[in-house]
Amino acid sequence: MEIITGKKPTPVKGIIYGVAGIGKTTFAAKWPKPLFLDVEQGSYQLDVARVVPKSYAEFKECIRQLQADAMGYQTLVIDSADWLEQMMVKHICIEAGINSIEKYEKGYGKGWNKLAEDWAQLLDQLDRLRIAKNMHILFIVHSKIKRYEPADDTGYDRYTLTLADRSADVLKKWSDLMLFVKYETFTVEDNGKIKVKGSGKRIMFSQFCPWCDAKSRYALPAKMPFEFSEIAKIFTMEPAPEPEKTPEKAPEAPAGATLPPAGNDTTPPPELPPAPPETPPPPEGADEPPVDDKRAALLQQIEDLIRQSGVGYGEVAAELERKGVVPAGTAIRDYNLPTLQRVIAGWTAIVHNINLHKKGN
């Protein structure tokens, strides 16, 4: 068990979104030594370094090359996330031989689940790049207005990301900084009527409010002028720590395995348990959950374990490939039921082996 104390500055992983034409790309160009992955081709009026991928495969190849050599760039700007998502949808449809993501695996929302999973895997790769090359990551996103129905109040309209709902949730949870940008407005009374006026000033928000999604793990004002100088200090700051959690008893290592002593990784890592036997058939007359329902429940359980453990989809898949549990290149969503059950049963060992592998690298 490796215990790390004290503050640990890390590169920024951020999102900036807002109304069209307000200057999001110009703002991003002021981040430290940026390289644009210009999916939208909207940076041509700026003197910046850019790559223009024409497909999602080309986009992923750019990430792979940067993981090998960042070439001195300190910020990777993806402009824009919503145009990138269109590439991802097209890629999914081509691979599946369909003309609409709604038809993926016969529908029922499975295409959007696949899209959210691809987002999670992409963000895992970007995190590896961010840490390995000390590189800031910034997504530019357009905004849309969506109805919001809080549990404790009446509904109202608010700004949010122009992405599929599940994709937006994945991206928002990943970020340390999420800024919303708009033009300042105010109301005036004119002949007994309330009218909305604009000052022309551009402002940005860094905290959640009724009309927009925003967040910041840095000590930033809730509302600021839309100027890079307002956030420049975050590049020498570290994110605020997460709220403290009640300490939990460390999980016991799997049978026959021992945790390595501090600073020594020579102890053999724990092994995954063998694949569980096939579930016996239910008694005659009993209802058995459909296979799709079983798979969905197991995948959801694995998603929850990944979120709690702080590892990525890619790391889990890579560990199972190293152990020979699954063929190389097999996506988690394609594992058979016994393998999914085996992953859940051996989760402690999987996370332990992933952490050992990270330290070895």
Main traits of this protein?
361 residues; alpha/beta; Rossmann fold; ten-stranded mixed β-sheet
Whole-number average pLDDT?
A: 82
Number of strands: 10
Largest sheet: 10 strands, mixed
**Head-to-tail CA distance between termini:** 17 Å
Strand content: 15-25%
The low-confidence parts are 245-267
SS class: alpha/beta
CATH superfamily of the largest domain: P-loop containing nucleotide triphosphate hydrolases
Spatial extent as radius of gyration: 23 Å
The number of domains is 2
Structural shape? globular
User: What is the top-level CATH class of the largest domain?
Assistant: Alpha Beta
CATH architecture of the largest domain: 3-Layer(aba) Sandwich
CATH fold type of the largest domain = Rossmann fold
Overview of the molecule:
The protein is of the alpha/beta class and 361 residues long. The chain has 2 domains: 13-236, Rossmann fold (3-Layer(aba) Sandwich); 291-360, no CATH class. It contains 9 helices and 10 strands. Strands 1, 2, 3, 4, 5, 6, 7, 8, 9 and 10 form a 10-stranded mixed sheet that branches. A hairpin with a 7-residue loop joins strand 5 (136-148) and strand 6 (156-161). Helix 4 packs parallel to helix 5 and helix 7 (313-322) crosses helix 9 (347-360). The longest helix has 23 residues, at 110-132. The protein is globular and about 75 Å long.
